[in-house]
Amino acid sequence: MNKTSIQTSSLVQEALLRISDNNHLPPKGSKIAIAMSGGVDSSVTAALLKLLDYEVFGLTGWLMEGSGKCCDGGMLDSARIAEIIGIEHESLDLREYFKSTIINPFVSSYAVGRTPVPCMPCNTEVKWGSLLEYSKTLQASHLASGHYARLNYSQNTYCIGKASDPNKDQSYMLWGLSQEQLSRTVFPLANFIKDEVRALAQELNLINWNKQESQDICFIPNTTKEFLLERLGERKGEIKHMQTGQTLGTHSGTHLFTIGQRKGIGISSTEPIYVIKIDTLNNVVYVGGKQDLYSKSLMAEDVNWQQPPTEASFEALVKIRYNSEPLLAQIIPSTNSFKANFQAEGESVTPGQAAVIYDLNHEFIIGGGWIRDFL
């Protein structure tokens, strides 16, 4: 990548100005590790930070044997992009750690009737855990990623804010980051939308500018059902109606279901029917109508407060899934948990998913936790 010719591009020059605008960047010349996945977002992040005169190197975690859906050739693509940009690149062998920290708990969660979100602990424990810690041994002061999120700093406290692109905002996925992790974080793409990033990648001659995105879980090579059957096997039980208790059919394992599921239940009905409750102790899956999916409140545990509350209760917005609209709720916090009482009932509140609290303007994260129960 020829830095002189790149600098004459108005598109790139504008991008460099937008990165520098209110983005809490470290001092020029700082050494920054880029968490590179082989995708276009982290690649553009690396290229632009290099053009801003940071000392940049790529860092990729080797997470598993073979290749997963969203990680196909990730290390190789990252190394190729680093060569094009003109930066060093390192891979860190995290296969055993990834298995014990992400894959095994994923399977265990399904076994007890929860529906996990593995990308969240991967962010906290792997990207901002192992990769960040390793980058410190290489004298890097910060870790940058291609996440679409914003870093905010006010009254000596860091928190995650929403990115400019409402369709790509990933703030919900980053509620678990600590103050120490946030203080070493750079989000260069906070002010960009996805199409602009692809245009920049093409302008910068990055070979992955049109690489397809994957929404799949990276360590599952086929389907989640096949993956769980391979690891947990079958355990046949009954499917019962939530209201009547009537047995409607049988299932091959409670671990094959999630609350709110409509397709693939394995029973016929003249009306739409959904999974309402999963009872792993008695090996029963309860189903019902859409009206049975609504809950008045939830309890969350293992909470991380990015902005510790100062009141016994407060109003805020709560997101219970990545793609869901936030719900207005009264939050009753404690040190490691909180209860959220919804003003309007929440649909398909699911243990194992994350409940993330935003301010009333839906701009900044206050805290988040794992959904334990709902009422």
Summarize the entry for a quick read:
With 375 residues, the protein is of the alpha/beta class. The chain has helices at residues 3-7, 10-20, 40-51, 74-85, 95-111, 119-137, 179-182, 194-203, 224-232, and strands at residues 31-35, 55-62, 88-93, 142-144, 150-154, 157-161, 185-186, 237-241, 247-251, 274-279, 284-288, 294-305, 314-319, 327-333, 337-347, 354-358, 365-374. The longest helix has 19 residues, at 119-137.
Structure description:
Helices cover 26% and strands 28% of the residues. Residues 2-7 have low confidence and may be disordered. By secondary structure, the protein is α/β, with parallel strands linked by helices. The chain folds into three domains: 3-203, HUPs (Rossmann fold, 3-Layer(aba) Sandwich), CATH 3.40.50.620; 234-288, SH3 type barrels (Roll); 294-374, Elongation Factor Tu (Ef-tu), domain 3. The protein contains nine helices and 17 strands. A hairpin with a 5-residue loop joins strand 8 and strand 9 (247-251). The chain starts with a helix and ends with a strand.
Which descriptors would you attach to this protein?
375 residues, alpha/beta, Rossmann fold, SH3 type barrels, Elongation Factor Tu (Ef-tu), domain 3, 3 domains, six-stranded antiparallel barrel, five-stranded parallel beta sheet, 9 helices
